[in-house]
Write a structure and sequence with these properties.
The chain has 155 residues and is α/β, with parallel strands linked by helices. Helices cover 35% and strands 23% of the residues. The radius of gyration is 14 Å and the shape is globular.
Amino acid sequence: MAEQLGSPGALLERRAVRLTEQAADRDDAIRRCGQTLIEIGAVEPGYLDAMLERERSVSTYVGEGVAIPHGTLAGKDAVHRDALAVLRFPAGVDWGGSPVTVCVAIAARGDGHVALLSELAQILLDPDRARQLREATEIADVLRLLEPVGEENPR
């Protein structure tokens, strides 16, 4: 039976949010995302290769300055637990011709990543929420913005 993922906000720990990252290029940004997932104990180092392989086969850029790097199916064995990492690159990163300022990295053990990707896309493709995420300078703002649509705390 497939393990169900929680909401994006439920899978994101404060220590997995990095708001002032820098990367030389797309692969460097993906490595930084993978390293964050390693540091929080969600994945083994081998997952980083699966993330780079995924990007070589299909871009994880979703629009609005956001990419959602994640591993290939083969990389699932390197995942200890489902988790997210959010890295903000204020200077931007060239992602195959599109500028990316926010990466939401996914580690998922089961096939629940498909539902999570769909939920993240719904959140991130809202231009206002995506803009707020790109401009976020506080971890609490990132956590709030990644709650499912309709479940945000009223302002």
